[in-house]
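Section 5.1 Outputs to date
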Amino acid sequence: MKAFFTLITIICFSMAGFSQEQDLPTDFLNKTFYKDRRDKLRDKLPTNSVAVFFANPVRNRANDVDFVYHQDPNFYYFTGYKEPDAVLLVFKDMQTAVNGTQYNEIIFVQPRDERAEMWTGRRLGAAGVKDKLGFDLSFENKEFKKYSVDFSKFASIMFFDFKNDVRDTYDSSDLYDLIAQFKAKVNYPEKNVTTLAVEPQKNNLDFKGLGKIMNALRGIKTKEEIDMIRKAVKISCAGQVEVMKAIKPGMSEREIDGIHQYVFKKYQAEDMGYPSIVGAGHNGCILHYEENYKPSISNKELILMDLGAEFHGYTADITRTIPVNGKFSPEQKLIYELVLKAQEEGMKVCKAGLPLKNIDKAGREAINKGLKELGIIQNETDKHMYYPHGCCHHIGLDVHDRGFYEDLQEGMVITIEPGIYIPENSPCDKKWWGIGVRIEDDYLVTKDGYELLSASAPRTVKDIEAMMKLPSALDDFVLPDLDKKN
C-alpha cells in the first residue's frame, strides 16, 4: 500500500510539473541558439583547452529571505539555464568517458526535488536540461565530485577567477561545494592567487583569456538577441511614454518608478535590467541615484528617469528627462537642447568601422562649446564636473554588457547618453542650479550607420511637451487616503 501511494505521489508530481510548463512563456530563445553559442565558443578556444563556467550564487537579502535569483549572464548565454548550483564545462576537443562515450561538453545541475520545488518552484533537473536545453550529457550536481577528468593534461583551463562571496549551505552539492571540488581537481593555488594572476604561464590555469573571448562573442549580437533587445527597448519606451502622460506635480519619485515597473510587468518583462534611477530636481544630478524616495515632486522641477526593462534576460537602457509640469522653463530648455545636440553629434559618427571613442569626443565637444556660450564655464578647455561620465556602453544580457570598446562593428548594440548635471552651489549662476539632464537611447550599429531602437520614446522638447498634454489611463486611478479617518 505504501508503495502504491508513493507511486501515485510520483505520478501526480510529474503531472504537476508537466502542467506547470504550460504556464511559461513560449518565446524564449531555443536550445539551438545555445548550442550554436557553445559551438562558437569552442571555435575560439585555444588548442587543448577547457572553459569552465559556474552559475551565479544565491544572494541573501536578510535572515531567511534571499534576493530573487538572477543567473550569471555568461552561464545563461551558453545554456539558457536559470537555476543556481550548476557548472558547465566546454572542451575544445572531444573527450572520452570511462565507458567510451565521446563528448565535448558536460553540465551539472541541481536535481529535481519534490519538497524543494513545493517551496521554491520548478526545476528542470538533469533530464529536463537534456530535453529543453539540448545537452547530451547532463548530470545532477552531486555527480561533479565523482567526475573524473585529468585536468593536468590541458594546456589551458579557462575560467573567471572567484570572488570568495559564495555562502555555504547544508547542501553538499551547492555552488560553494562545486567551487571547492573544482579547485581541488585543478590544484587551485589558494595562497598564491596574486602571483598566479600575474604569471599564468607557469601553470595551466587561465583567469584572463575568457574575458577577451566573451567580449568578442557577446559584443556582436545575433539576430535572435537583437529581437530580444528590441522587445526590451519597446517595453521601456512604453514606460517612458506612459509616465509622460501620467506625471503630475505632487507625485513621489517612488510613484513614478512604480508606473514604469507596472508597464514593464504588463508587457511580461521579468525584471529590471538595473536599479531604477528616478531623480527629481537636484536628485537628477546624482548619477546613480537609486533611493527614489522624494515624497513630493514640485511644479518647477525636471525629473530624470533612467530605467530599462529586462525581457528574457536582455535589458534596455533608456533615459528621459522631462518637466514635471509639462513645460520646460527657459533655462531647462537651453540645457536640454544642448544635451540633445551632443547626442545627435555623437550619432553622426556612429558607424561600423569608426572608433567608438569618436562618439564621446563629438558629444563632449558640443557640450563644452555650449556650456561656454551659456556662461557656465569660461573656456571650452576648462575641466569641470558638469559632464563626468562617458557616453557609450554595450547593452545585452548586462546593462553594461561585454564587448570591445575600440572600433564599432556591425551587430553591436550600444547606448549614447550625454548629460549635464549642475548641482546646487555649483560655480555658476544660481539659475542653473538643480538642473540635471540625461538623454539616453539604444542603437544597433549597422553596416552603413545605426538604427535608433528607442525612437518611440519622445526625445525633443516639442515632442515631449506634446506627449505630456495627452490623457493618461491612470488619470482616474485614485487610491483611498490611508490617513483619513472613516
